[in-house]
Every structure is written in structure tokens, then in C-alpha cells.
Amino acid sequence: MTDNNDSIDKAESTPKESRPWYKKKRIVIPLVLVVLIIGAGSNSDSEESGTATASSSTENAAGNSSAEEPVGGEFGNYPADQAAFVKAIEDAKEAIGAAETDLQESVALRARDKQLCALLTGNKATNWTGIIDNVGANGEGKAYVYVEIAEKVKVITWNNSFSDISDNTLIPTSSKFFDKLVAMQKGDLVTFSATFLKSGNSCLKKGNLTEFFYGERPEFVAKFSDITKS
After folding, report:
1. Closest CA to 170 of 146, 148, 188
2. Secondary structure class of 161 (helix, strand, coil)
3. CA–CA separation, 166 vs 146, rounded Å?
4. What is the CA radius of gyration of the chain?
5. Looking at the DSSP assignment, which residues form a beta bridge with residue 226?
6. Tens of pLDDT along 21-56?
7. What's this model's pTM, rounded to 2 decimal places?
């Protein structure tokens, strides 16, 4: 028969260090802390990554939105050929303004107009936009109209029969858009289609009386085929 005291003695004599390493408090507690710290760091990185991704997506969306905004502003939403036409005029103003002689000014104007004509297909403007700058009638009841397509840039008809004698830009009462034009007034935003007229020495015909004003605030004579209030 085994003595209980012997059992107790044996139990007490069993060394504590014989327990598995993963059951020892001195190892388990620090190990748990390490795991918690690593986990927290990982979550923080994930949150920062998610925030950065979201921020990047928002910036990209904003950038795309800005890139897709139509050009033209107060003068309407330009189609591509009108935007290029207006930009070419703006880009040429510096060279024209720097001209010191009439010859230099003439050369600069011809170069600008050549570039403008290269941007047009068949000398036509199709569904361009602008603001009515002037609208009225001559003595025969035909309508004339000036459409400003950018600041100090206009597409116009002649406003009198004498100037229009060979160009036929004045709009007769029989025109399909005459009644629409009657209802318009200065400041109205419109969409229009027209054919730019040519002159003897240029692919465009100016409505300005002088070269100076044709460079600074050009008026292009055109025959309108439609004008609609936007």
C-alpha cells in the first residue's frame, strides 16, 4: 500500500520547469502582447491604406470631372472646333499687338486667318454657341444679327442692303428660323450654324472697317443657316 505522504513528496519533487513552454506565464503573457501589438499595427496600416485609396479615388474623380467640364463658360458649351477657333484668336493677339508696322500687322493677321480656316471644315460652323450681341431689321424687313462667340469676337451678317448686295447674309422673312430670331434679344444664349464668307485675299471676310479692330476685336461675316435660343 502506497503511503499518501510518498505521493505528496513525489508531487512536490516534480520540477516546475517540466511544464510545456507554451503554458509558462512568463512566456505566454509577453507573446500575447506581441501578437496584439502586431495586430494593431496591421489594422492601422490597413486603415491608412484604405484612407489613401479613398482619397486617391476622390482626387481622380475630381480630376476627371474637371477635365470633362465643357469649354466656353458664359458663351455656352463649345464644340471642339469652336474651342480651337477661339483659342487660335487669343493666341494670335500677342503677335498682332506687337506689330510695329502695318505690314507686320497684315502678315500676322493673314497667318492667324490661315490657321483659323484650317480648323474649319468647308468654312462652316456647326452647332456653335454664343450670345446675341445685336439683332434687328433693315429697311426691307430682313433681319441682321451679331453673335458674340467669345469676348470681343463676333460672327455677323451685314446690317444693310448696300454692304450685303453680293453676299446675301441678311435673313429674309421666308427663312425657316426667322420667327425664332424675332423672339430673341441682346444677351440671349444661342446655338447656331453658319458658313463663313471668303474675301478676295483671305479665306475669311472681315466685318471690321480697319485692320486694327479686325486684330483686336474681329468680326467675321457669315451666312447663317440656323439660330436657336439655348
Report:
1. 146
2. coil
3. 19
4. 40
5. 193
6. 444 444 444 444 444 444 444 444 444 444 444 444
7. 0.69
